[in-house]
Amino acid sequence: MSRLVPWLTVGPAVLWTLLFFILPLVLMAWTSLQPLQGDGPGLGNYVAFFTNPSYWRALVNSLEVTALVTVLAVLLAYPFAWVLAEQVPERWQRLALVLAILPFWTSYLVRSYSWLLVLAEQGVVNGALVGAGLLSEPLRLANTRAATVIGFVHFFVMLLTLTIFASLKQLSPSYRKAAADLGAGPLRTFVYIVLPLTLPGIMVGAFLTFVLAIGDYVTPQILGGNTELLMPQLIMLQIGRRGDFPLASALSLILMLVVTVAYLGCARWLRLERV
Amino acid sequence: MAHRLPRVVGALYAALIYGFIFLPVVVLVLFSLQATTLPVPPFTGPSLRWYDAVLSDRRLTAALGNSLLVALLSSALAVVLGFLAAWGLARFRPPGSGLWRALLTLPLMVSYLIIGMGLLILLNQLGAPRSRVSAGIGHVVINLPLCFAILYSQMGEQQARAEQAARDLGAAEWQVLLLITAPMLWPALFASFFLSVTFSWDEFIIAFLLTRFDTTLPVEIWNLLRAGLNPRTNAVGALVFLVSAVLVASIELVVLRRRRS
Amino acid sequence: MRTARRLACALTLTAAALACHPAGADELNALIWCDHADPALLQPFEEAHGVRVNVKEYEGTGAGLAIVEQSRPGDWDVMVIDSIDVRRGVERGLFAPLPEDRLPLADLFPEVRFDEHTTVAGKRYAITEKFGYNTVGFNRTKVDPAELRSLKALLEPKYRGRLAIYDYYLPVMGMAALAVGKRTSELSADDLPAIRDVLLGMKANARLVGEVAASQTALATGEVDILVGGGEWVTAGLARENPALDFVIPDEGAVLWSQSLAMFADSPRPELALEFIRYVMSPEGQARLATSSCYWGMPANRQAALTDEEKRILRFAEQPAFLARAQPYPAPDEALDRQMQDVWTEMLQAR
Description:
Chain B has helices at residues 5-32, 49-55, 58-92, 97-105, 112-126, 132-153, 157-168, 173-184, 186-202, 205-210, 217-226, 231-260. By secondary structure, chain B is mainly α. Chain C has helices at 2-19, 39-49, 61-69, 86-91, 115-118, 169-179, 192-205, 212-220, 232-235, 270-281, 283-290, 308-314, 319-325, 334-349, and strands at residues 27-32, 52-57, 78-82, 119-120, 123-124, 126-139, 163-166, 206-210, 226-230, 245-248, 254-263, 298-299, 326-328.
């Protein structure tokens, strides 16, 4: 009986994952080989992706946007998390952190939508800038790639602040004390002690940002104004307009492949870091 | 003086980021009180007409109920499955446990869109209908890895010793699990449940692809968004935010009080 | 701790209560466009018949038919579909014939009866309920309508950054076809290069390519001055707020959109489905549909119970003149449809 216990406890979750995650992916891979019309299975959908510029351009757009978002979000969130962890008194830190991620709890769709209101030509940002005489013409922000990036960065600054804050707090103060005792100034302590030690935390957060951003349909769809297509939009276009599941499946698998490559890249990098 | 400069810069920077983080929320809430039908400046309110419209919209309130139902049930299932698997793998280390661990966390790497589409293809193959159930299944898929990872990381030596003591005193495995492990892991269980509810509550694309009429709130909000520029969307967003903020605050209070006592 | 437990109890109770929520004794399942989701349209019917109308929105016939194919027989009762695509549904055996004597066919604008699309082999399978134009919507304070006499004007450099394009390939590609002097009913793959050039030219001037909401927003907030593919369905709903929004039909003409109601052959409630169609086609139903919160449009029934103000906004009196200059939606076969969507994707992706 007791020999069955591990299987009885692990089994359900494994079964669930196999049935509702692995099996669908296998079906998707099979579907991606089917042509929408015409003869037997083949790589036609993949060939279509690589030969049609408006298809592969979507992947390039996605990579550009996601890379920019990841870098910007890390650069903005790190100092913020640092201020929260180092300068805010201990007893207020929790409150400061909860405040920093409060907008998480607005609906994710509505958040993108409200950026549209903020960035509109008659919106708050342009109103303030033009009103203050800083600009004569309103900026074109809404319905551009910049709007997509801003919407994404907003979300991921909150996420990264959390992960970076956590890794800063795990840092034992004795490291810094030791560095100071050995005569290192604050800057050198940061560059040689704090930054390397929090790097794994940053990498985890950055990877999470990359994965979540590259697969997101809503933000570019609401904010980007369809002036260009990212991968998830191209995928949804196939499902929503054409009912073309084979092409949508092929595009999805290509997207998964990209994420896997990014993971392998990150993992190797992280391991090197530990050596 | 030179000593204070970094503090001032830090405070300024934090204020800027807080401003950036709160800007859309403030605008959202402000224009939910708009009296006219376009939620852009100039502000014509305050008026509660859009809240009235939202609260009397049966489809929205039904979607709210569906969202709650899907979030609570799918999260409960995800926590139970994740808890059992984490306990089994941590305590017994069955053969291939590294592989099982990798398998269980793998869905974290795949975007929701792809998970949803895969399930849609599965449903089509089976000829099964789209419903709240299928959306719930999808939400378990996305939340199970999270629950598993959180709970697995919390399976420490201390619990293992307490469990062993209970076994020595003649407790059956299910009693150990229910009476020793679960109560000791209560904070982690609660955290993973709460996190799952949050993710499920706000999840759009899977619910969009997998439901038919019994849509969840995000899908209904999506329909609102597509149906025209409308302060109703602001009102829904503001309400969701208000409810969630109150919930978060009360949980925060509970946790804090527990810590102090 | 106690609070947490109480909270957990409350949540569990809510879940239990929701789970026990009855599924509703009598329901009607409708596959629709967003204008039919308006409670103001549905509630009177629901109350009169003591039923609940479940709606699922879709856009584009391809997506709608895909939804039907992924459903089980009997899942759906009625469907809103592009008039020109009714035949596609009939060919798949989806729709049931409608009794003409129980429908107000005589009251319809004759130009939108579309018997060639809505009847097959002498049997009627759908009835036109609402129509309008995909043409040029604009802001009168920013653009002189005289400048928009020709669709070619949309390609001029002076409109750079001032255009929005409605994100649906059929009507806008129909307009592009008009711009190069083609008839929308006679499109072939050979016309696509010329249409593509017009689309890319418009894209070069476009600020965004948006669905109903996004394009309405852009026009209403002054983000753009002209909406390609716009018409009364964009401007009428906003007329009270922003009277400067208007539409014009250029010399080349406009594309006529038209939506029909059909009943599914395997509907388990054919009588209720027919009653729903009769309700939507009644003067009151027509008025509510025409002024739906999602978008306004012309009622197909001339007897629609609209106020004078609503009629003025919809330009009810000018319809005969408009209809004379309108051409139908393009109705490509599946191969051409695929090619058209590829061109559309190329336009979306173009810089």
